[in-house]
Amino acid sequence: MSSLDDLYRRVIMDHYQKPRNRGKLDESEGLVVNLNNPTCGDSISLSLKVEEGKVVDARFLGEGCSISMSSASMMTEAIKGRSVEEALKLASIFSDMMQGKEIDDSIDLGDIEALSGVAKFPARIKCATLAWKALEQGIRQAGES
């Protein structure tokens, strides 16, 4: 195993064992999107607070594999404080990365880059993208896209 693979594995496990933004927002503060991956049983409940075209807060609850839960943790970290357009662009870039497409090296994905290896395992891609699909659905629900 390369040192980069080892680093990525450690980043994924860190987000899985110590998830960021775990919890939920009060329903009066935002909206909640619940999604399931029937293939493996992963589930997520994503709470979003969107104000004036900006993702003010994002939290998640869920059960699933390390890929699914760490992806949700990384996503909530990455989108908080971003405009809706930026969050959707990041979701698009993530989707491209999961499909094995080339992505612009000038874009700093931070910890999200640790999930790039998931593209080699088609059965795990749905795990990694579950939270991102919830984000896209939530933004549509909020009427922000």
Automatic annotation (TrEMBL):
SUPFAM superfamilies: SufE/NifU. Signal peptide: none annotated. Belongs to the NifU family. It comes from the Bacteria. GO terms for biological process: iron-sulfur cluster assembly. Residues 8-127 form the NIF system FeS cluster assembly NifU N-terminal domain. It comes from Brevibacillus aydinogluensis. It holds the Pfam family NifU_N. The gene is nifU. This is SUF system NifU family Fe-S cluster assembly protein. GO terms for molecular function: iron ion binding; iron-sulfur cluster binding. Coiled coil: none annotated. InterPro entries: NIF_FeS_clus_asmbl_NifU_N (IPR002871). The lineage of its organism: Bacteria, Bacillati, Bacillota, Bacilli, Bacillales.
